[in-house]
Amino acid sequence: MASKIGKILVVDDNLGIRRALEILLPVHFAEVKTIPSPATLVSSLEQFRPDVVLLDMNFNTSINTGNEGLYWAGEIKKMVPDVEVVLFTAYADIALAVEGMKRGAFDFLVKPWENEKLIEVLTAARDKARKSMGRDARSGALSVISSDSSVISSEVEKSLMFWGASQPMAAIRKTLDKIAPTDATVLITGENGTGKDVLAKEIHAHSLRSEKPMVAVDAGAITETLFESELFGHVKGAFTDAHTDHMGKFEQADGGTLFLDEIGNIPLHLQAKLLRAIQNRSIVRVGGTEARPINIRLICATNMDLEALVRQGRFREDLYYRINTVHIALPALRDRQEDIVPLAEMFLHRFAEKYHRPLTGIAPEAAGLLKTQRWSGNIRELQNCIEKAVILSEGTVLTAKDLQIDAGSQPGMRGTGSGMTDDGHSERSEESKVREAMERCNGNISAAAKLLGVSRPTLYAKLKKYGL
């Protein structure tokens, strides 16, 4: 369980949201304060002195032609620059939220939120704020450790993966032991929910760069207009509202590891710019002329068949071979049957502690039921299933009834082993799966993203890509 350190101020006019956060956030923050509008924001900042402000983008009142979040985010950063602002937004406000990040906001969260993602972002913002104030995020002692929303601390645990007992995972672990100490570029493939991001962290944790940052980028969620700025940075005045110089992800990862997730979604014309940076080991910030050397170890991941995309002319062959020095294919959960129940037990103990449930194990009939499922969403789907079951449980042992799974059912998308791709990982199939999920969920993006086993920003990018 996360340490109860730091203060967070929530500004949202929705009473239900404030009440929910008043229950969730005290588990992770020492003090939580909620207010319904920015009317008392200034006095709250002065009296409460938060580390983080979770700020709604729109309120009942009309300030700055509806862009209240942008206005107040700017005001907060002017008054207390060390306080981190996280914007709370609806899907329609995402463009405004991105604009807010340009103006200094730490990150944005989309409603309805996922608890795990919300806590991850807010605690990262808290740690960065406390570091800026000269205090360690955990103990309050003077700190010299770097912190960022997409940076994984060098204090990361040295065993992040659940390796289990399956032969495919044993082979991957042997490969990791060989490649981790090198600077070899790694391409990780596998269905959604198989743990590609966790494996990337494991490689970094065992590398000679483990004391330096690992910076993760969801390439599928970056809009084309922001791609260069996000990866390579920009100089002051490069475009409207570029009020200061901005360091991109390549520079943030200097000396450490850059993890490019969803690399198969990068448009063809932007792949050339990425290839140039990788080949030259240098970047030029948007609007600048100076070539800045970079020293990174590159790890990429995708759930797509890049070889097929190369044949279709949708992915550069030279970029494919540049990122594919070592290829690791993670198996689907259905291909590591012996690991399903141990994984479920691990999640049970984690969530039992988190939600204060007196659970000690899984009943035999429940374990048997878990083994019968296809788990189209892989480990992520299993984790979500166990979390929900733990919350709804009433006894000391997790039962089949708690799982709320019909015997013989096949959760997730039909006919595939992944929420987003079929056996050939074809793009045509991906589009049909996205369309089917949106239809089954009546256009509810959050529900469709959960069904597909992807994040909401990734689903937004795919909806835009296929014009859905």
Summarize, please.
By secondary structure, the protein is of the alpha/beta class. It has helices at residues 15-24, 41-48, 68-79, 94-102, 115-132, 167-179, 196-205, 224-232, 249-252, 268-280, 306-311, 317-323, 340-354, 364-372, 378-392, 400-403, 427-440, 445-452, 456-466; strands spanning 7-11, 31-35, 52-56, 84-89, 107-110, 151-152, 186-189, 214-218, 257-261, 282-284, 291-293, 297-302, 326-329, 361-362, 397-398.
Structural overview:
With 468 residues, the chain is α/β, with parallel strands linked by helices. Helices cover 42% and strands 13% of the residues. It is built from 19 helices and 15 strands. The strands form four sheets. A six-stranded mixed sheet has the order 6-8-9-12-7-13. Strand 4, helix 4 and strand 5 form a beta-alpha-beta unit. Helix 13 packs across helix 15. The two termini are 40 Å apart. About 11% of the residues have low confidence.
Residues in helices, as a percent range: 40-55%
Question: What is the radius of gyration computed over CA atoms, rounded to a whole number of angstroms?
Answer: 22 Å
- Count of discrete alpha- or pi-helical segments spanning 4 or more residues: 19
Number of E strands? 15
Q: Could you list the spans in which at least 5 consecutive residues all have pLDDT below 50? A: 61-66, 135-159, 408-426
Structural class: alpha/beta
Strand residues, percent: 5-15%
Largest sheet: 6 strands, mixed
Distance between the termini: 40 Å
The overall average pLDDT, rounded, is 81
Overall geometry comes to: globular
